Amino acid sequence: MLTSVESEQMLPLPSADATGDELFKLGLLYSTGQGGAPLDYVSAHMLFNLAAMRGSTEAKIYRKELSQEMASDEVAEAQRAAREWLAHG
User: Fold this and answer.
1) Which of 25, 19, 11, 34 is nearest to 2 (CA)?
2) pLDDT of the chain, 89 residues: tens digit per residue
3) What is d(CA 82, CA 89) in angstroms, rounded to the nearest whole number?
4) Which of 4, 11, 78, 83 would be a feasible disulfide site paired with 45, CB 3.0-4.6 Å?
5) Where in the chain are the domains?
C-alpha cells in the first residue's frame, strides 16, 4: 500500500511522470521482494494498475495474476492507493 511504500524506506515512490514501463518494473520489485523492495502485494498491485493505465500490457497480465493471490480487501486497498497517487501525483 502507499503508506507502507513510504514508511518502509528502500525505494522511493515513482514520480508523477513515470512511464508505464518504469511503474511496471517497480511493481515487479514489490511483487517479488527483490531489489531492496519489501514483499508487498498491495503496493505491487497498485503499481501494476498505474502501469496498465499508462499503457503497459505486461502490467495488465501481472495485475490479474497477482489479484488472484490477494484477498478482495487487499485489491480494494491497492486500487484506493492508486487513485490517491494519481490525485497527488
Assistant:
1) 11
2) 343 444 444 567 788 899 999 999 999 999 999 988 999 999 999 999 999 999 999 999 999 999 999 999 999 999 999 999 999 86
3) 10
4) 78
5) 2-9+18-88
pTM of the model: 0.85
Nearest to 6 by CA among 37, 31, 33, 27: 37
Residue 70 backbone dihedrals phi, psi, to 5 degrees = -110, 155
